Amino acid sequence: MADFIESYAKPVAFRQFGTTFDGDVTVHEAFEQAGLNYSVESQPLFRAPEELITDIQNGNFDGLFDGTITDEMLIKQKQDELVNWALDFKRGMDMIQTHKATFRTDALNTLGVVGKDYQIVQNEEALAFIDYLGEVSGANPKIISAGALGYGERVFITVQLGEDNFLSPNDALKTYVVFTTSHDGSGGVSALITHIRVVCQNTLNAALKDRSTNKLTFKHTKNVGQRLDWQIAANRERAAKVFGQAGKFTDAFIANMLDLKGQIVDAKYVREFAAKMYLDKAQMRLLELANWNFDKVEEISTRKKNSIQSLMNAIENGIGQDMYRGTKLWLLNGWTTYLHNVKTYKSPEQEFTSLIGGTGMKGTQSAYDLLMAA
User: Fold this and answer.
1) pLDDT, tens digit (0-9, with 9 covering 90-100), for 158-188
2) Are 188 and 146 within one domain?
3) What domain range includes position 56?
4) pLDDT in tens, 83-99
């Protein structure tokens, strides 16, 4: 039974949460309005005996500090217990030498556990090079959205770059740069050039042959602050190397999309493409031997079978799939509309993580490489 597909597109992933803008704000203003102007610091980590942790979790000292215990003898007893507990804690704890914790100084939320050499970069400091984007790219950058994931362990700002490009008169692509930084060790300070297909709001962020051309990353290692100092000529040159080629990258990307648009595929190619997105070579061989009867191949999980069927349905009936039918571009668009408009996620943040650097982005790269190579 075919899956039901909505007839309208969801908002693009980075517009589903956070704060959106009309493009007429500075980086500082975007951080202020999106609530990203908090600072991050680190604290040491300690190991404590399990029985002491249990006391904390069970709230053994509840009532001592909130005023609900009023009996003087009981208060004295509790205070003595607390002193003994503190002494036991001091004797039994170890400071972890290899890692530390990061936390927000305003809300005191723990953001993550990182290595001892991890260098914290404050949000606005990390993404200050957005101010130089127009200078090095030659395009007018417009801040579109900004927000935080979780308690603020990851932060993003999205900037629209340049004017729309068109695969056909009714099929526009917008170019964005998604800037991210993290405080939980999950990634560095990065900027990713990506494209959004307007008709279905799908993310097309596959890299070309040189995968460094659409991404710039600074790891949270020693001297990261110096590498993010945009008064230093070498840093500006590195940014210019990536974003100065943003126009060339987009032109090459559009040319490849038009090339895929001109390549016709048959039904056999379509089903093989959908299957290859989920199956390894051994499973593909078993499926071929079973004459493409999925029910006869026990080595393919039900989850994978359902995913392949959902992808096939998205290719045939998904949003924007009335264009380029029977071409390789139709297949690529089918994959991206499956990721954005069919696949379900636990939260908008999870979708953002998947499509901007996670499994969804890797899948799009695999689909792109598969279609370009065949």
Assistant:
1) 998 888 889 999 999 998 889 899 999 888 8
2) yes
3) 41-109
4) 776 777 666 667 888 99
Residues 45 and 34 in one domain: no
Can you give the pTM of this predicted structure? 0.83
Q: Please give the tally of structural domains in the chain.
A: 3
Average model confidence (pLDDT) for the chain?
Answer: 84
Residues 89 and 57 in one domain: yes
From 213, 241, 258, the end of a domain falls on 258
The answer on 271 and 138 residing in a single domain is no
Token code pair at residue 81: 């217990």
Q: Is residue 7 part of a domain?
A: no
Last residue of a domain, one of 258, 284, 299: 258
